[in-house]
Amino acid sequence: MIVKARRRDMPFSAATPAPTVEVTVPPPELAVGQLDGRNGRARSMARDAASVTAGHVSLLVVGAAASLLAARWLGPVGKGQLVVAYAVVALLGPVAAGGVDTYIAARGGIHGEAHRQGVVRFGLLAGWAGGAALAIGTVAYALASGLSLTLVLLAAAAAFLRPSVSVLQAIATSYDRVTLVGRVLVVMAGTQVAVLVVGALDGATLSDLASSTTLGVVVGYVLLVPVGWRAAGRAPALSSDDRREILRYGGRVVVADALQLASYRIDLFLLAALASVAEVGVYAVAVALVEILWQVPSALSRSLFPRVRAGHLDKARVVELSRRLLGGLVVLGGLGAVVTQLLVEPVLGSAYSAVPRLVLLLLPGVILVGAAKPLSAWTLSQGRPGRNLRASAAGFGVILIGDLLLIPAHGATGAAVSSSLSYAVTAIAVVLLAPPAARSEGPPQGEPDA
């Protein structure tokens, strides 16, 4: 939206009218939350974090239930086909937008509203391009695996929309519509449940399970795309320098995310290669349980972006927030450990008796990484993704060496110790590398972000 205003700080007369200044402001429907009062900011941030946490947990619970139901309803072959169909989306979906989504959430608006509108338009294009590439990869892999055309098309539809949904969530975050993101996630989870229930009433098939996943993504896209259209505005296209800045930032984010993902999953692959398949199954349950703790820090980090950009939070307050989060995660982790000790073996059987011990070994590192996530978000908001990349690289080096040394002799226990140490190193590196507030937009001169 372009608003024309007359300057009142200069003398003028009828013969010399006041000059007109064009100011680009966000549309009113996208400006919700940007005028938080000082007393209400903490409550607003807590509300946003709670909303996104509820959304993530809803999707997590529904996904776990769908996985178990697929195994029960479809058998090993059908379950395997479902996993293969969505394997490319699961592996590459989070980075398919090229990190442009992270730039929008963390840095959108630092150069003014007109620039943000240009960034939004560029992000929408990046989402479509990443979705097209992801869909092509999904189709090629699924057809090569001999899957049915219906299953391939359902998976390809989810693949095409997945990066755009990430970009749209980032746009909503940039305009401080974090609560909307949480609500949409809950609706996506509800859509999956509805499709699963309808399918179960009529005898669930492979297409029913695939439809529940794809329709959830479609609903998320439909609910969020109006936000993207309104935010794009009519700003001129970005300059080539702006595009290079965004792609350079996004590239570092993608590499850092890839290293983090590798750090979180490489132990499973090495455990399968160096130990037994049974230990992989037991260890996978322990990892899935402890990673539930990351839902709250991840949601809180998303709510930080617009507030840091608006100047409502400085580094000292983010550090204090991380300290309080550390205390909360210690309490939640302790409760989780007790529940695991009491329920895992009675529910899953004696074959999983090692899970409580593995959870205790994993918890210290998981808690530290969770507590460091607000500072990781701070670093991204300051335009320094290279520092998070270095922290991720340090953690990956620790887990790679640790797994190779400990897994052959200690199996899943060695993998848990190595992972916990890796997480701790990553968290410490994030804290030490978190930059001070930038005095200008972009990295300070003489100190490149690498």
Q: Stretches where pLDDT falls below 50 for ≥5 residues?
A: 1-38, 439-448
Characterize the biggest β-sheet.
2 strands, antiparallel
Oligomer: single chain
Order of helices and strands: EEHHHHHHHHHHHHHH
- Estimated structural class: mainly alpha
**% residues in beta strands:** under 5%
Number of strands: 2
How would you briefly describe this protein structure?
By secondary structure, this protein is mostly helical.
Task: Describe, in plain words, how this protein is organized in 3D.
The protein is mainly α and 450 residues long. 76% of the residues lie in helices and 2% in strands. The chain contains 14 helices and two strands, in the order ββαααααααααααααα. The chain has helices at 41-85, 87-92, 100-107, 113-144, 149-174, 178-201, 206-232, 240-274, 277-290, 295-309, 315-348, 355-381, 385-410, 412-433; strands at 2-6, 20-24. The chain has a two-stranded antiparallel ribbon. α3 (100-107) crosses α12 (355-381) and α8 packs across α9. It is globular, with a radius of gyration of 23 Å. Mean pLDDT is 83; it is low at 1-38 and 439-448.
Keywords:
single chain, 450 residues, mainly alpha, two-stranded antiparallel sheet, 14 helices, globular
Helix-strand blueprint:
Layout: E1 2-6, E2 20-24, H1 41-85, H2 87-92, H3 100-107, H4 113-144, H5 149-174, H6 178-201, H7 206-232, H8 240-274, H9 277-290, H10 295-309, H11 315-348, H12 355-381, H13 385-410, H14 412-433
Antiparallel strand pairs: 1-2
